[in-house]
Amino acid sequence: MRIEASHREDGVVLARVSGEVDLLSAPELRKWIQEEVLPLGGLVLDLDGVGFLGSAGLSVLAELTEHSIGEGLRWAVVATSRVVLRPLEATGLAAQTPMYAGIEEALDAVRAPE
């Protein structure tokens, strides 16, 4: 798994995740989010480069949903590939996850209201 992130001027972190998000790599993603994003409060996860999304990766997304409710995290997922959408839909996480088909749309949804 690889994470390419940019900290934007509007306070949103845009993270492009590629590779496999599985039992081995999901803890790395979780740690990265805890260290780089949670204090800031704005995240767009672009998962279009993900080739496999396992249950451990789904767990990280479920935790983000909890943080968004409890701590006011603003976040969104960009997902158009079946590899990502199918497990989200099968587990019911798709209904709880703010998902968008494009980066600009996701960024607009996550930006802090002025």
UniProtKB/TrEMBL annotation:
Residue stretches making up the STAS domain: 2-110
Q: Which InterPro entries match?
A: Anti-sigma_ant, STAS_dom, STAS_dom_sf
PROSITE patterns per record? STAS
Q: According to the lineage, what is the superkingdom?
A: Bacteria
Show the Pfam families listed in the entry. Answer: STAS
| Family matches, as NCBIfam families | ant_ant_sig
Similarity annotation: Belongs to the anti-sigma-factor antagonist family.
- Show the PANTHER family listed in the entry: ANTI-SIGMA FACTOR ANTAGONIST TM_1081-RELATED-RELATED, ANTI-SIGMA-F FACTOR ANTAGONIST RSFB
Put simply, this protein is called Anti-sigma factor antagonist
Q: Which organism is it from?
A: Prauserella endophytica
